[in-house]
């Protein structure tokens, strides 16, 4: 019997690798004879770089970059030399997890450090990059990234704009002649785990701004600023990508990647499964177990368990999802290939109580599931 374990991370509790390891312990306790294949996954957000490096054997590199507030930090990126491909995770440079709660400031945080990582990849000789958009602390429409790559954002006096999304309200001219010329022959795929447009009630500012520290008034301010940036960009480029699904990912980074760097936007889970050769792993599996912190109706937008289930459904493989919690609309996941889904809690407990027990609970659930599977008629 072949069991494929391919979870995402359980936020604030376990990395995808640690989650898979805990699952494997439970499976092997119930079915010592089972062949267990572990493949940690991610959907483009935090932890995606680790998943790609684990799947491909890419070299992990470090670079001193600016974080979302302009402070120095060491950011990791991946280099797959035989494919001349770089793996760049936005959250490594401009991630929300690097800021304390009182440091979150969607008005002024910047993606400049992401541009620095792209420059490092170009300097290495990269011909392609997978840009993982998720977990951002930013709402600057990718302006910081573009500035690092050589674009100039100028106000009405010809002065460079300060960092952050709020400053885009003062954008008077956009100079693109200074963009690194190597970008013209550079292939970029941007991983997104949402389908939000840039603007409006489903846009970057309204949906994701509050978690990055934006008040309702600041959300409106940021939405206007991104709209103004969109107007000037459309005039400069001759194309308007504001309504593109995924343009609102990572505070508008999806928009910048597509509009200025000609990126292909793809669901992050599909990109990572392709690198991990999930088609081959699924073909060999008799049972697939995946999971993440929460499964709900929003998971259908591109979260890991749904990406796995859709791929497994094509091969008629059973998929069990283990989640920290099951939220509103989770039953819709049955239509996407999920065979069964279970919450981890073994009794009433608070989140604070559950988090340190996540590995224990995953192990116990997998043991119970495999006992049932092994002894089915």
Automatic annotation (TrEMBL):
Pfam families, per the entry: Gly_kinase
Keywords assigned: Kinase, Transferase
Gene Ontology terms: biological process: organic acid phosphorylation
Gene Ontology MF term list: glycerate 2-kinase activity; glycerate kinase activity
Top-level taxonomy: Bacteria, Pseudomonadati, Pseudomonadota, Gammaproteobacteria, Oceanospirillales
Top-level taxon of origin: Bacteria
E.C. no: 2.7.1.165
Enzyme class: transferase
Gene3D superfamilies given in the database record: Glycerate kinase, domain 1 (3.40.50.10350), Glycerate kinase, domain 2 (3.90.1510.10)
Protein name (database record): Glycerate 2-kinase
Signal peptide: none
Family: Belongs to the glycerate kinase type-1 family.
């Amino acid at each position: 019997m072949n069991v494929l374990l391919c979870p995402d991370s359980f936020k604030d509790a376990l990395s995808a690798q640690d989650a898979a390891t805990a699952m494997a312990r439970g499976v092997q306790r119930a079915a010592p004879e089972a062949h267990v294949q572990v493949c940690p996954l991610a959907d483009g957000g935090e932890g995606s770089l680790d998943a790609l490096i684990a799947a491909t054997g890419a070299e992990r590199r470090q670079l001193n970059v600016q974080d979302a507030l302009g402070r120095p930090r060491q950011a990791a990126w991946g280099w797959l030399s035989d494919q001349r491909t770089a793996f760049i995770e936005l959250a490594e440079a401009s991630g929300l997890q690097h800021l304390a709660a009182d440091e979150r400031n969607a008005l002024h945080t910047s993606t400049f450090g992401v541009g620095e990582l792209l420059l490092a990849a170009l300097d290495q000789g990269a011909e392609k990059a997978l840009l993982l958009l998720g977990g951002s602390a930013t709402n600057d429409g990718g302006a910081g990234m573009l500035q690092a790559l050589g674009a100039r954002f100028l106000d009405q006096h010809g002065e460079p704009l300060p960092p952050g999304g709020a400053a885009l309200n003062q954008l008077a001219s956009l100079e693109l002649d200074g963009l690194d010329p190597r970008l013209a022959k550079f292939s970029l795929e941007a991983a997104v785990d949402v389908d939000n447009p840039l603007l409006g009630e489903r846009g970057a500012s309204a949906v994701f701004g509050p978690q990055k520290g934006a008040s309702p008034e600041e959300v409106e301010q940021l939405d206007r600023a991104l709209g103004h940036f969109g107007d000037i960009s459309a005039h400069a480029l001759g194309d308007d990508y504001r309504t593109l699904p995924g343009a609102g990912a990572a505070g508008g980074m999806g928009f910048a990647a597509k509009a200025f760097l000609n990126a292909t936007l793809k669901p992050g889970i599909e990109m990572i499964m392709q690198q991990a050769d999930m088609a081959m792993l699924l073909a060999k599996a008799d049972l697939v177990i995946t999971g993440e912190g929460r499964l709900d109706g929003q998971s259908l937008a591109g979260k890991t368990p749904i990406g796995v289930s859709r791929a497994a459904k094509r091969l008629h493989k059973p998929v069990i999802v283990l989640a920290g919690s099951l939220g509103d609309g989770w039953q819709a996941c049955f239509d996407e290939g999920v065979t069964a889904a279970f919450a981890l809690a073994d009794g009433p407990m608070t989140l604070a109580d559950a988090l340190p027990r996540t590995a224990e609970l995953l192990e116990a659930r997998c043991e119970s599931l495999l006992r049932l599977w092994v002894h089915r008629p």
